[in-house]
């Protein structure tokens, strides 16, 4: 045996000893942690629990590393701190990213998109539940358009009378639209009067419910019978028949021109006008939310079928999700979400305008547009569905205008409340800023929405749009680490393409909106 070999044998032996010591230590720590988690009282405060786990880990690691140095495992302490301070449900991979379900709204005919989403899900190790969208050529969407026209006619009369203005002054499709607000009169009080009960349907129509929306929902719940609905009126040469005149035959009289029927003369941007595609998208989003409530989900993520997501989506979302406001449900039970909707993806809006909320990526929403990726709590889903299916406003605008409009109106109400509180304190000779904050906290909010900035999910924009010609708006987002890019690189089909130019003469409408203050 050579001298060098003789000297290396003791070193190798020491290495083997330390290796076995590390294995034994790891096993001991794992068993100790499991035993602690099993026997710890459920009512133990989370902070105390984390401190206890950290102390136990530190003690074990300290004894095992004594005289050996941490250079052999420089991440040992980091892993210990991570285990001690991370919520238990974030320590293991979740196939639904901590949600009860991940729903994907998709046309059954777009198998190409469903295949893409299945591949994306496989790359992330997650489970998806597809929700069937409605093709924009479905006849029942024209029936909805007729009911929207009738609803708008009623709404204009009520709002014009409440505001003391001409009916021609009611309308517009921008954020805060007259078609979305739940208040018919002017916002001159922090507690304005809401719309009255929607008129009951004519008994001759034999509706299943008090109004057209409840009738539509009842038919949908009865095995999809809503698809048999047909419009009452037809348009020939742009001239409508009187509303309520039944059509004879499925195709006589020509197709109903939905855009013309619902045209808003106060809206200058053509892209905001309501057409069949807008109504079909509105319908699809309400189906996804309704499915969530039917399944009894506490939280759910709703995606469209043409998205790209961050490769590290689970870790990024976990860091955001733990900072969203919650309240203790009961002793030893799960916390209840105190948020309604959180946008993991959005477009067009300036969601950075509100301060960061306990996480550098999280902000209270300002005016988030697009619905390609948003999370809902159970309470938020109920609130959203109640608002979206109100017969006074249902299907009257693009569906992604609902939340931004409610936020815009809420901001105006908050400003009014502050002025009223200040006037009250001034007249009484008292000044108590905390009273104003307390009063604001007691008032129910129209919607409690948050946005992740920059977004964790973006639209792919690499295929034909189901709603517009081409791929729709030129606006697109970027991800730090694209899952789709990784998949395509693995397949050898990735090509880096980016249009780095701006035409001032014909700016994209999305750019115009994003550069303005909401």
UniProtKB/TrEMBL annotation:
Residues 232-242 have a biased composition (Basic residues). It comes from the Eukaryota. This is Uncharacterized protein. The chain crosses the membrane at residues 16-38. Residues 231-254 are annotated as: Disordered. The lineage of its organism: Eukaryota, Fungi, Dikarya, Basidiomycota, Pucciniomycotina. Keywords: Membrane, Transmembrane, Transmembrane helix.
């Amino acid at each position: 045996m050579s001298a060098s070999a003789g000297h290396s044998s003791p070193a190798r032996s020491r290495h083997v000893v330390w290796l076995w010591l590390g294995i034994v230590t790891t096993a001991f720590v794992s068993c100790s942690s499991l035993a602690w988690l099993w026997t710890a009282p459920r009512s133990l405060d989370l902070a105390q629990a984390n401190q206890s786990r950290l102390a136990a880990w530190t003690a074990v690691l300290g004894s095992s590393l004594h005289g050996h140095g941490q250079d052999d495992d420089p991440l040992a302490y980091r892993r210990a701190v991570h285990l001690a301070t991370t919520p238990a449900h974030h320590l293991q991979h979740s196939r639904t990213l901590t949600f009860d379900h991940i729903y994907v709204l998709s046309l059954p005919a777009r198998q190409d998109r469903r295949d893409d989403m299945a591949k994306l899900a496989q790359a992330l190790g997650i489970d998806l539940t597809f929700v069937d969208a409605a093709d924009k050529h479905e006849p029942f969407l024209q029936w909805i358009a007729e009911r929207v026209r009738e609803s708008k006619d009623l709404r204009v009369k009520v709002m014009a009378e409440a505001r003391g203005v001409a009916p021609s002054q009611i309308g517009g499709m921008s954020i805060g639209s007259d078609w979305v607000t739940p208040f018919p009169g002017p916002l001159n009080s922090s507690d304005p009067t809401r719309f009255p009960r929607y008129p009951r349907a004519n008994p001759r129509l034999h509706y299943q419910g008090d109004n057209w929306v409840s009738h539509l929902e009842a038919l949908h719940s009865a095995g999809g019978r809503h698809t048999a609905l047909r419009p009452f009126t037809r348009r020939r040469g742009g001239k409508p028949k009187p509303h309520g005149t039944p059509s004879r035959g499925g195709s006589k009289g020509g197709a109903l021109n939905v855009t013309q029927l619902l045209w808003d003369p106060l809206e200058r941007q053509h892209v905001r006008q309501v057409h069949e595609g807008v109504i079909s998208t509105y319908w699809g989003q309400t189906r996804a939310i309704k499915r969530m409530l039917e399944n009894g989900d506490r939280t759910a993520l709703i995606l469209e079928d043409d998205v790209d997501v961050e490769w590290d989506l689970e870790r990024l979302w976990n860091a955001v999700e733990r900072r969203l406001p919650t309240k203790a449900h009961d002793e030893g039970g799960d916390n209840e979400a105190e948020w309604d909707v959180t946008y993991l993806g959005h477009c067009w809006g300036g969601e950075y305008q509100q301060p960061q909320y306990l996480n550098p990526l999280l902000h209270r929403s300002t005016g988030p547009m697009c619905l390609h990726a948003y999370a809902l709590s159970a309470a938020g889903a109920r609130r959203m569905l109640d608002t979206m299916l109100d017969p006074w406003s249902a299907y009257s605008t693009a569906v992604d205008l609902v939340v931004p409009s409610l936020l815009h109106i809420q901001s105006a109400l908050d400003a009014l409340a502050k002025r009223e509180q200040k006037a009250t304190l001034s007249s009484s000779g008292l000044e108590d800023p905390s009273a104003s904050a307390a009063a604001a906290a007691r008032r129910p909010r129209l919607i409690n929405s948050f946005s992740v900035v920059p977004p964790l999910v973006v639209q792919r924009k690499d295929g034909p749009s189901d709603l517009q010609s081409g791929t729709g708006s030129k606006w697109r987002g970027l991800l730090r680490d694209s899952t789709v890019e990784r998949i395509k690189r693995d397949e050898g089909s990735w090509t880096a393409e980016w249009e780095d130019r701006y035409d001032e003469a014909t700016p994209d409408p999305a750019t115009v909106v994003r550069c303005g203050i909401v």
